[in-house]
Design goal:
The structure is a single chain. The protein folds into two domains: about 120 residues, 2-Layer Sandwich (Alpha-Beta Plaits); about 140 residues, Pseudouridine synthase I, catalytic domain, C-terminal subdomain (Alpha-Beta Plaits). Strands 1, 2, 3, 4, 5, 6, 7, 8, 9 and 10 form a ten-stranded mixed β-sheet that branches. The longest helix has 13 residues. It is an alpha+beta fold. Formation of pseudouridine at positions 38, 39 and 40 in the anticodon stem and loop of transfer RNAs.
């Protein structure tokens, strides 16, 4: 069966997350609804996705895929039709055909997020739903020094929602994490790993902020990881500032074609 990967951009403030839910607007529901109309004589399978984001989390370069019984002849027409039928807040940016065995979730070898922070004494009218506002002093140099302690394969139980991880393995590998100072007011933390657990990015950035504010004098991100106890880590930041940026697939160069657009 032909297999197609889509590159999807969405504003999380319009949706109750990615995953389909009864009587609630979600990204998956919006795209599947459009496909059911466009491909009514060549029905699409249910969408698989690289990362199932929560309510309010944004997507800049999410990858999902679906199969059809017959080939789709015109990708441009498909994209125009999907974007005409999906609601405000979601856009499909590109489409490529991928091998039959490709699965956007299980074939994925890396996922990348950014968390955006607005750092100013006074609030901005343009940050609501887009970034987390920090008005108190943060020692960003000290935060940056902590990042090395997160890289590598480690048990991230301290930085994950406790209820969702009870009795489960909590080892993941962070390939890269960096603090990017875009302007004096705008800072973002970019993190790439082989996988993330529930709220892991939001808790990780929240804990780094607590460290940077001087909440703990004698604790580092490394010592917090060693404790393997969620209650000893920092706050869970709101979803407003979290963006899924990119999914990586080592064995599928076709996916590189999807990202031939400029991403942040």
């Amino acid at each position: 069966m032909p297999n197609y990967a889509l590159l999807v951009e969405y504003d999380g403030t319009h949706f109750y997350g990615w995953q389909k839910q009864k009587n609630l607007p979600t990204v998956q529901s919006a795209i599947e609804s459009a496909l059911s109309i466009i491909l009514n004589k060549n029905p699409a399978s249910r969408l698989s996705v690289a990362g199932r984001t929560d309510t309010g989390v944004h997507g800049l370069g999410m990858v999902c895929n679906f199969k059809t019984e017959f080939p789709i002849p015109n990708f441009h027409k498909l994209l125009v039709s999907i974007n005409a039928l999906t609601p405000r807040g979601v856009s499909v940016k590109n489409v490529v055909e991928v091998p039959a065995e490709f699965h956007s979730r299980f074939s994925c070898t890396g996922r990348e997020y950014i968390y955006k922070i607005y750092y100013n004494k006074y609030e901005s009218s343009f940050t609501e739903g887009r970034a987390f506002w920090v008005k108190h002093h943060v020692d960003w140099d000290f935060v940056e020094m902590q990042l090395q302690g997160l890289i590598g394969e480690k048990d991230f139980r301290s930085l994950t929602k406790a209820k969702s991880m009870a009795g489960k393995r909590a080892v993941r590998e962070i390939f890269d994490i960096r603090l990017e100072r875009l302007t004096p007011d705008w800072i973002q933390i970019r993190i790439r790993a082989n996988g993330f657990m529930h709220n892991m990015v939001r808790i990780t950035v929240g804990t780094l902020l607590d460290i940077g504010k001087g909440r703990w004098n004698s604790r580092s991100i490394g010592s917090i990881l060693e404790e393997k106890n969620r209650s000893t880590a920092g706050m869970t930041l709101p979803p407003d500032g979290l963006y899924f940026v990119r999914a990586y697939y080592e064995d599928y160069p076709e996916i590189h074609e999807l990202y031939k657009i400029t991403l942040p």
